[in-house]
Write a structure and sequence with these properties.
The protein is mainly alpha-helical and 220 residues long. It is built from eight helices and two strands.
C-alpha cells in the first residue's frame, strides 16, 4: 500500500507533507513517553514491522499489499505512539526503496495516520457500546478491528488512486481492492493471536487492556 514517487502530482505530495508535519509535532510532543516503560518493546515492534512490510505482493506501481500491524501497535501503545512507530517503519521502508521519499507524506497519511486512527476509533466503539468482556476485547477490539482497518486503508488507497486518475476503477477493484480482503483476514488472525498472547503472558505490553475493566469486575 506504499506509493512510489511519480504516481501523484507534486502539488498533492507537497500538500500531504505540509499537512502531516503539524500532526507529527503534536504526536511527538503529547505522546505519553513516560508511560513507555518498555521502550525496547516499542523499538522492537518498529524493527519487526519494518521487516514485515518488506514482504509484499503487487503487480503494478502503487498496488502493493502487505500487512500493516497498525491495530496491534495501537492496542499496545495507544494512538500517538503507534502513529510515530509507523512513521519510523515507513521511513525504513522508504530508505530500502519500498516507497518514494517524495510520496512519504501521502504514504504516511494512508499507512500510518489513517489505520491508527481507525483502530483507535474501533476500540473506542467497542469500549463504549459492547459488554466489558475479555473475549469482546480480543475478538472484536483486536481480531475484527484489524480486518476492518486494512479494508478501510485499502478503500482509501483505491479512492486516492482513482481520484488522481492513476488507474481505472475496474483495474483498482480487480487488481487491488478485492485482494485486500485476504490481507485483512491475515492481519486479523495475526493481530488477534499476538494480542491474546500478550494479554495472557505480558499484559504490561498492552496499554489499552485494563484488568479492572475486563477481569476484576467479573470476579467481584
Amino acid at each position: 500500500m506504499n506509493f512510489p514517487d511519480g504516481l501523484f502530482p507534486e502539488s498533492w505530495q507537497w500538500a500531504a507533507w505540509l499537512l502531516l508535519l503539524p500532526l507529527v509535532l503534536w504526536a511527538a510532543r503529547s505522546a505519553p513517553w513516560r508511560r513507555l516503560g518498555g521502550a525496547h518493546v516499542w523499538f522492537g515492534a518498529i524493527v519487526a514491522l519494518s521487516l514485515l512490510w518488506s514482504l509484499k505482493a503487487g503487480i503494478r506501481p502503487g498496488l502493493t499489499l502487505h500487512l500493516l500491524g497498525a491495530t496491534a501497535l495501537t492496542l499496545m501503545f495507544g494512538f500517538r505512539l503507534a502513529f510515530l512507530a509507523l512513521l519510523a517503519v515507513l521511513a525504513a521502508t522508504s530508505a530500502n526503496g519500498g516507497a518514494g521519499w517524495g510520496a512519504y507524506g501521502l504514504n504516511a497519511w494512508l499507512t500510518a495516520l489513517l489505520p491508527c486512527a481507525a483502530a483507535r476509533l474501533g476500540l473506542h466503539l467497542v469500549e463504549r457500546h459492547l459488554p466489558r468482556n475479555l473475549f469482546v476485547y480480543l475478538f472484536v477490539g483486536a481480531f475484527a478491528n484489524a480486518a476492518l482497518v486494512v479494508v478501510a486503508t485499502a478503500l482509501a488507497a483505491t479512492a486516492l488512486l482513482w481520484a488522481a486518475s492513476v488507474y481505472a476503477g475496474r483495474t483498482l477493484v480487480d487488481d487491488f481492492l478485492s485482494w485486500s480482503l485476504l490481507v485483512g483476514f491475515s492481519e486479523a488472525w495475526l493481530t488477534g493471536a499476538f494480542i491474546t498472547l500478550f494479554v495472557v503472558y505480558l499484559p504490561a505490553w498492552v496499554s489499552t487492556f485494563d484488568d479492572e475493566r475486563y477481569l476484576k469486575e467479573k470476579q467481584a
